[in-house]
Prior knowledge:
Low-confidence stretches: none
Radius of gyration: 23 Å
Distance between the termini: 49 Å
Strand content: 25-35%
Oligomer: single chain
Number of strands: 7
Amino acid sequence: MLMRTDPFRELDRLAQQLMGPGTWSKPSAMPMDAYREGDEYVVAFDLPGVSADAIDIDVERNMLTVKAERRPVAKAGDVQMELSERPLGVFSRQIVLADTLDTEHIEADYDAGVLTLRIPIAERAKPRKISVGVGTGRKEIPG
């Protein structure tokens, strides 16, 4: 259902930490899990610290795009930052969905920093039985 190969994921994570936060023109990647659960395909994205109104989900044809922005927390003027390891900025992920998924009925839920998308498997892609009819009228083909 999903095509993804990324042998350099850890190298990308390290480069992201060194190069700073993502921007709308060059967003950082977000971690995700994808699996099939019954008649649905489930994709879960880790977005801790992101408010629900900062998440944007688009589907065009069979391309799913999720963008989110983690903004800095407003601090009082007398606060001095001692350590800042949590990444800020824009995060994005694009996934090519199989034609067997019903992109018209995607459900999105955001809870405890995890965005979960449930994509139903299209009726045409579900296994079904085909009955075999018994023919009564046989014709002989003259040769």
